[in-house]
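Record filed here:
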Amino acid sequence: MSGSNTLPFPQSIRALGILIIALLTSSCAQPSEDALPVTDTEVPDARFANLTRLEYRDGALSMRISAKKAEWFESDRRLRIEGLEFTTYRTADGSVAATGRADLAILYESSGDAEFSGYIQVRSLEDDVTFETDRINYRRALDTFETPPESEVLVKARNQLIMSGRSLLFDATRQYYEVREGVKGSVYR
C-alpha cells in the first residue's frame, strides 16, 4: 500500500524547510564554554549554547527556533545542532501553526541540505497531522524530505488515521507524501 496520501499536505513540512534556511542564514550568539563534545579529529570553529532566533513577517512573529547547543565548522560550512525545536505561528492571529523538534540536526550551508536524527517530531496544528521518525534528510535542490529505508515513521492524522511504515518521502514542491515500504495502519471514525 503505497502512493500519495488523501490528506491535505501538512504546512509543517514546508515550515521545516523554512527553518533550515533560517538557521543557515542566521547569525549566532557569543560562543559558550558549554559546547557539544567533539571528535578527536574535528575541532569546531565556534560553539554556542541556548540559541534562540525569532523570525518576523510583516511585523508579526512567524517562527521561533531554538537549540540547546550548536557547533560551526567553517571548513565545510556545517552547523551541528543538538536539541533543536521550532514553532511556526499564524501571522494573522499569532496562534501556533506547527511545532517540531529533533535531537540532532546537521545543516550544510553550501547546499542547503540537512540531516536530522534521534527523536524527530513534526506536528501541524493546522492540519492535525503528526510525523515521528528517527532519521530524515532534507535535499534543498529537490525540496524533498526522505527517511532511509530502515527508518520507521509514524503518521497520525486527525485522531482518525494512524499509519506506520518505512521509506517516507515528502515532496514539498508537489505537496504530497508517501510511505513506500511496510505500510500498516488503522482508520478510526
About this structure: The chain has one helix and ten strands. Residues 4 and 178 are 5 Å apart (CA to CA).
